[in-house]
């Protein structure tokens, strides 16, 4: 089903080469998805060769898992692996028709990435951002071609969750949007078109939910109560496990962005802030069964 407000799909441009900027948690999952579904060359870049190599190895490892599950043939697995390459040099994006960035959630960093990309890619290449919460309009401001910038927001784990929020920024043109939606369809994702607003739609809801659960925990409600009380809602996983999956730093970034935009509506858990500042892997820990418990170490934070 085409999302409401979608432009004429005849405007979509062909995508025969994809670039992914970043080789971290989301970026390497994106590279895997693009290569698997589009079956076109995918080039991955990051700041240093080690990160790039880790990203490429992640994709190779996941393709091997698909092979061992019988989801791809040995020939297809070899073909997919050969389609993924990495580099530290953005000039490898010269032939790309669609480049998505999934770098650190910092406006200046993302603006810098896009302005560097503009010097390399063709004028028609789509520049997509996987930002969780930042303004796509602001990210595109100052570029020579802001009309080819679009938000393309995936959810972790990328291979499993079906949704992509496609964000129309102020200057995004219909050809860019149509191309992004066509790509989304080939990726077998359900795309929704959303307005460029802080944290779009899904992360607002998730942040509200996590905010209330962490606030209850911060106020002294035992974690298992806060956690199990939500099970009847049919959530696929505990909010605390989800927090760990998303990454506390990303969750905090989204919460801060929403708090800045709507201070009365969104609070930020002080425990979450302390945890991220301390660089701890988790304010909450989980036992072998995945049950959360409060890590004693956090008392010292
Ligand atoms: N990465 C890749 N694949 C994964 C995975 C992961 N982290 N976790 C599970 N999977 C795959 C498994 O391999 C399995 O695939 P298969 O059927 O092909 O073998 C399939 O998912 C099902 O796995 P399981 O049976 O082990 O697990 P569940 O059925 O319990 O599902 C889950 C796991 C899909 C993670 C589910 O618990 C879930 O949907 N959780 C909610 C996740 C969520 O809400 N994410 C959104 C976070 S917000 C976000 O990302 C936005 C950002 O901007 C902050």
UniProtKB/TrEMBL annotation:
Domain 3-hydroxyacyl-CoA dehydrogenase C-terminal stretches: 200-282
Taxonomy, superkingdom: Bacteria
Transmembrane annotation, as ranges: none
Domain (3-hydroxyacyl-CoA dehydrogenase NAD binding) ranges: 17-196
Family: In the central section; belongs to the 3-hydroxyacyl-CoA dehydrogenase family.
Protein's name according to its UniProt entry: 3-hydroxyacyl-CoA dehydrogenase
Species this chain originates from: Jiangella asiatica
């Amino acid at each position: 089903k085409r999302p409401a407000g979608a432009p004429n799909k005849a405007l979509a441009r062909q995508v025969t080469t994809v670039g992914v900027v970043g080789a971290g948690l989301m970026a390497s999952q994106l590279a895997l998805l693009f290569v698997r579904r589009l079956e076109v060359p995918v080039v991955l870049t990051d700041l240093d060769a080690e990160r790039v190599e880790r990203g490429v190895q992640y994709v190779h490892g996941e393709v091997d898992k698909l092979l061992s599950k019988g989801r791809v043939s040995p020939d297809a697995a070899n073909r997919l692996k050969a389609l993924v390459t990495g580099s530290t040099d953005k000039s490898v994006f010269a032939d790309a028709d669609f480049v998505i960035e999934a770098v650190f959630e910092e406006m200046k960093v993302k603006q810098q990435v896009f302005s560097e990309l503009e010097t390399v890619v063709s004028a028609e290449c789509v520049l997509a951002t996987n930002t969780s919460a930042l303004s796509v309009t602001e990210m595109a401001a100052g570029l020579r071609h802001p009309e080819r910038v679009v938000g393309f927001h995936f959810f972790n784990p990328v291979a499993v969750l079906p949704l992509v929020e496609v964000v129309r920024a102020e200057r995004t043109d219909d050809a860019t949007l149509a191309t992004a939606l066509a790509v989304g369809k080939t990726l077998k994702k359900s795309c929704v078109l959303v307005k460029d607003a802080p944290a779009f739609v899904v992360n607002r809801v998730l942040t509200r939910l996590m905010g209330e659960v962490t606030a209850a925990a911060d106020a002294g409600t035992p974690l298992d109560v806060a956690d199990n009380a939500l099970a009847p809602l049919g959530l696929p996983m505990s909010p605390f496990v989800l927090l760990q999956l998303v990454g506390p730093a990303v969750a905090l970034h989204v919460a801060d962005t929403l708090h800045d935009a709507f201070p009365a509506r969104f609070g930020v858990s002080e425990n979450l802030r302390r945890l991220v500042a301390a660089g701890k892997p988790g304010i909450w820990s989980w036992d072998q069964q995945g049950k959360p418990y409060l890590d004693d170490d956090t008392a010292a934070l």
